Amino acid sequence: MSLAANLSSKWISVSEPFPHVLHVEIGRKPVNAFSVELWTEYGALLDRITLEGRDVRALVLSSALPKLFTAGIDIADLGSGHPAPDPARQSLSTYHHLKTFQHAIGAPERCHFPVIAAVHGLVVGLGIDIISACDVRYAAEGTQFTIKEVDVGLAADIGTLAYLPKITANHSLMRELAYTSRLFDAREAERLGLLSAVVPGGREGVVRVALDLAEVIAQKSPVAVSGTKRILAHARDHSVAENLEYTATWNAGALQTNDIPESLRAAKARETPRFAPLRGAKL
């Protein structure tokens, strides 16, 4: 059975282009505006893949629409909640809504496998929140980005302002972009440090490069890759000494893996190594 079986839904298509690689395509016409239903569906999908123990070793996230990645949040959806009877209760309701929203968009960090974003066209507002939570980001030539939130009277609150200071050393440019909401192109995003590379061509070109990377990663030890992801995330938020302690604790168990002798055996035999899934499937 395909790893993608029964994962596609109303606005999200999931396929398995290579063994152990999933391609998740978002397709809510006309502009991939994220309603509550869509961002809830998105976060639940990524969590489900991990919780079900599917043997996924890399995932590519892209838009199914030909002209853009996403226009951001669905503005029409913002006022759909029920008003609370007083400001204190309204504030508490808004707090819980934002925390749920942040949790959904932060789902790539909870995946035990790398998530690779392949973007094209426009990446507006929430689109930057989404890709900032991913492990690797590629963009097609001609892609344009904007941290749009200040233009609608708010500070970006779903991930951009939390991730970008960790992603980039160029705080001057980052703050300029966040304060002004001006458009910036893929080359400037690469200079910011948001992207690994700018890929020639449009949607098809950037998706192909991302899938090729995912195929390479999927051939590595899942114990090694998942451990690397977890240790890198810890290093981002802790001191060197704290991370070294964490790494020693982590690898005290992880070094017992059968993936090490299998890697050595395959290298000696000049074969592709065969690694067991990280977890037993719960399908």
Automatic annotation (TrEMBL):
GO MF, one example: delta(3,5)-delta(2,4)-dienoyl-CoA isomerase activity
GO terms, biological process: fatty acid metabolic process
Any one of the GO CC terms: mitochondrion
Coiled-coil annotated spans: none
UniProt keywords, alphabetically: Fatty acid metabolism, Isomerase, Lipid metabolism
Record-stated family: Belongs to the enoyl-CoA hydratase/isomerase family.
Gene3D superfamilies: 2-enoyl-CoA Hydratase, Chain A, domain 1, Lyase 2-enoyl-coa Hydratase, Chain A, domain 2
InterPro entries according to UniProt: ClpP/crotonase-like_dom_sf, Ech1-like, Enoyl-CoA_hydra/iso, Enoyl-CoA_hydra_C
Transmembrane region(s): none
Pathway: Lipid metabolism; fatty acid beta-oxidation
Organism in which the protein naturally occurs: Mycena albidolilacea
UniProt-recorded name of the protein: Delta2-dienoyl-CoA-isomerase
